[in-house]
């Protein structure tokens, strides 16, 4: 049994007991080969629920802050992330973009499942924000299918400022792979990357029911002083 499988055998049942999950459409994730899971992002704990709901191992590129072990809940969460093979990335200017792309390509070229939050950061208000085009670049460069994912309920588990997680039901919905054929072989062009990314975000919105915002979440957070 792999380390991931062993860790999931312990983490998944415990997670489902504390936070009952309603999982839909898991069969849309191909059984073999590289796959990109593109999800909305509501809470720091989101990768855990996608990993538990997906039948295959999922690799995420997570910011280093997620591996902070300052409090007991964060320590447990960080160790759970490490146990299931998640990767940290340095988000300092000039460090994160190239490192994240290299790691993402390596995961997909290895035939694995790669999880990504195209908004780039958690939604500041529960709405779905504009996606970063690095998602489309990865998909169009590697040819990996993109499966949209919608999470619900995770924002109430560990909202900013709360130290002890609350009990709450969680929904994880997988959709059919997004048709990116109109932009095939156009990963090097900015407009096709933007259009393909928007198509993926539209698919996520249909699954989640979220209102879409034509702005980047990071810029809205900066205005609100949320960082």
From TrEMBL:
Keywords for this protein: Acyltransferase, Transferase
Keyword Transmembrane annotated: no
Keyword Acyltransferase part of the UniProt annotation: yes
Domain Phospholipid/glycerol acyltransferase: residue ranges: 35-154
GO molecular function, one term: acyltransferase activity
UniProt protein name: Lysophospholipid acyltransferase family protein
């Amino acid at each position: 049994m792999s380390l991931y499988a062993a860790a999931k055998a312990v983490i998944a049942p415990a997670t489902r007991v504390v936070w009952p999950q309603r999982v839909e459409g898991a069969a849309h994730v191909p059984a073999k080969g590289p796959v990109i899971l593109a999800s909305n992002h509501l809470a720091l704990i989101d990768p855990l629920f996608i990993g538990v709901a997906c039948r295959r191992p999922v690799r995420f590129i997570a910011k280093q802050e997620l591996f902070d072990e300052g409090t007991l809940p964060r320590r447990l969460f960080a160790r759970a992330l490490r146990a299931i093979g998640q990767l940290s990335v340095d988000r300092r200017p000039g460090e994160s973009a190239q490192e994240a792309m290299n790691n993402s390509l390596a995961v997909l070229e290895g035939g694995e499942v790669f999880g990504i939050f195209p908004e780039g950061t958690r939604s500041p208000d529960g709405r779905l924000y504009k996606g970063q085009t690095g998602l489309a670049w990865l998909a169009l460069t590697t040819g990996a299918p993109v499966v949209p994912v919608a999470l619900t309920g995770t924002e109430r588990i560990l909202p900013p400022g709360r130290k002890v997680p609350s009990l709450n039901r969680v929904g994880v919905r997988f959709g059919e792979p997004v048709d990116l054929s109109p932009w095939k072989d156009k990963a090097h062009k900015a407009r096709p990357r933007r259009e393909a990314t928007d198509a993926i975000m539209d698919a996520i919105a249909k699954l989640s029911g979220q209102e879409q915002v034509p702005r980047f979440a990071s810029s809205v957070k900066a205005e609100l002083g949320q960082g």
